[in-house]
Description:
The structure is a homodimer.
Chain A: H1 3-17, E1 25-27, E2 34-39, E3 42-52, H2 64-81, E4 85-95, H3 101-118, E5 121-129, E6 134-143, E7 159-163, H4 169-172, H5 174-177, H6 182-191, E8 196-199, H7 204-215, E9 218-222, H8 235-240, E10 247-251, H9 253-261, E11 271-278, E12 284-287, E13 293-295
Parallel strand pairs in A: 4-5, 9-12
Antiparallel strand pairs in A: 1-2, 2-3, 3-6, 4-6, 7-10, 7-11, 8-10, 9-11, 12-13
Helix pairs in contact in A: 2-3, 2-6
Amino acid sequence: MRLKTLGEVGLIERIAKKIKVDKTVIRGIGEDCAVIRLSKKKLLLLTIDMLIEGVHFKAKETSPFQIGWKSLACGISDIAAMGGVAEYAVVSLGLPAKLPVEFVDGIYKGIKSLGRRFDVKIIGGDTNSSKELVIDVAVLGFVEPRRLVSRSGAKIGDIVCVTGVLGGSYKSGRHLKFVPRLKEARALVKNYRVNSMIDLSDGLSTDLNHMAKESEVGACIYKELIPISKDASSFDAALNEGEDFELLFTLPLIEARRLAAKKPNGIRLPITQIGEIIDKKMGVKIIDRFGRVKELKPKGYRHF
Amino acid sequence: MRLKTLGEVGLIERIAKKIKVDKTVIRGIGEDCAVIRLSKKKLLLLTIDMLIEGVHFKAKETSPFQIGWKSLACGISDIAAMGGVAEYAVVSLGLPAKLPVEFVDGIYKGIKSLGRRFDVKIIGGDTNSSKELVIDVAVLGFVEPRRLVSRSGAKIGDIVCVTGVLGGSYKSGRHLKFVPRLKEARALVKNYRVNSMIDLSDGLSTDLNHMAKESEVGACIYKELIPISKDASSFDAALNEGEDFELLFTLPLIEARRLAAKKPNGIRLPITQIGEIIDKKMGVKIIDRFGRVKELKPKGYRHF
Lengths: 304, 304
């Protein structure tokens, strides 16, 4: 079978099936980050994200600064989605030998600039020659056990929320210069009982389906409530485009009310309640203002 | 300036210069692994290694099993070189969409087979479509502070040793199926006062120069003493070819004598004393059986 036929989710499921871990591994393949038990008070988070020229960016249209920035931002966003703090990163580069050294300097300027903003230390890496530019960044972080949150913890009755506004990320170039929602995520897990969280990389429709599947629940969201970016060309863009890197999270109704009444310090972004978690049997639905219910199909980014 | 002109070592120095870390970072860019202080009793090791089709292997001549095996083996070898134990790995893949799924299965068979051997758990990763096959593996391990060893600790008067035999790794295909010397490294750091260690990835001539430079010492080795593999086509192959993934290490004379008298349990490989650490002013030398001294130039693998 070709990868194209199987798709990314199918591939990950196929890989995860045959992998053996032990009880120190709290979360493994299938989550935004792997989670390892270090001690009673400390969990370790580890994530890795690859960007490839011609797939994730066009070398001629993207500045090296943006490539570097984004390569680290993806990993920090994954750590944020688990409620953690990002601390260290290692950077693996595949570089065409004819590339000017100044281009590599530019990539590192982007990495360091974002690193400084979130106090993430660059502690090592690997450099290789390659035909296409490849950059792969592993980010290491920590989280307290009671603050750990993941895509698989959504509970029936939870309110579904998103930070910020959605859509038009590619068109506006926001996907290359987004700020990971780490501070917002920390403020949320410190102040509220958040049951599940995921960062919106593949698009709301796809990531909500991921969350529902991993949590073994259903979800329904209201079309009218989805916060649309001024950059989005249509409602469908906000629903499906991806690379928004906003947080999608769920929390019990009582907590959602507290959050709506008073946002915690450190969150300036809008937070919007867009729906609720329902029984798995009901599936994942979207409801329009006339009350018409449709299945919400994952129409976001397909990797293969 | 082009990367080709600067070279890999120049590039790494250029990158390392402008990187800021903090006091939790015991070793950063320039070592085999990054080293982070977790507690008084525990240091964390993190390393990342990228393999690229057409650079590190030819897809048609290499089995997916071997690609997977090697991608993890490089990282475990790095952890070994610091005296540590490898525990977890995350795997980033760039895969051509037309690749058969069975090829990816084969890569994971190789990864899991080596993982089982050293009890390294695969806990996550990233999958992407790409033109060429790229596989990047980050390995996480731990080491006790008193057992940490690195390439930068060699002291004047130390004896220089290598495990196993050198040369012919490419020709014989050993570079794709080597067993990282983790058990040997652990037996060494547990039983002897090892001052410095490095894994031989770029070739003895190059890696000894790395070690000398990072330790701010010189070194001299004896041509007659270098253990040559039966696969090596010449003495120069043993000296320069690289990808042997044996351990090069130094320890005080008194410790070297103990080691020569009785190898610790768990080491079946030959261990050969090949020279000594000398003053930096003397440089890095090789002496033949007629007592003729030559400068030992780093003639190993150049990445750009």
